[in-house]
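I wish you would study the pair of lines that follows with an eye to the fold:

===
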Amino acid sequence: ALTAQTTGGSNTAIGYQSMLVANDAAADQNTCVGYIAGNGITDGQKNTLIGNEAGATRLTTGDKNTGVGAECMGKAGGSAMTNSGGRNSCFGFQAGVSLAGAAADNVLLGSTASVGGTDLTTGSNNIMIGSGSGVNSATAASRIVIGTGLASSASADTTLYIGDNTNYLSYAYT
């Protein structure tokens, strides 16, 4: 844990190769607990990652993210989160594995929440609750998706979805 860290500080890393590559003054005030948790963080700060492979390889420079659950915000592949991607909260197995790029201010709750759609690269202010819930747009904004396996339509920002992948209600709000 923290084997490369020579600058920066106030980090807590517990677990094999947790925060492995952090070596920048900006890699500060992170808490990573679990096998390879946060091992890709280079200069992200104020991140909290708890769980086996939480934030592994994908979270590199994002700030103020919270991930609790095995592989949440983690190693499922795709683009790495960038410095501007932050303030995301993910809870559950593989919750938030579709977050990438500058995705910010999203809340994902449930096993594989965010997997039900497209990688969310610049989308913000979305809420996904339920196993496999997601959005079908890389730029989705202000969508609320509640249900198992339910993914929002590709072009429906500021819309609420409730149901499952076959039966759901949608409501556009402003």
User: Anything to note?
Assistant: The chain has no helices and ten strands.
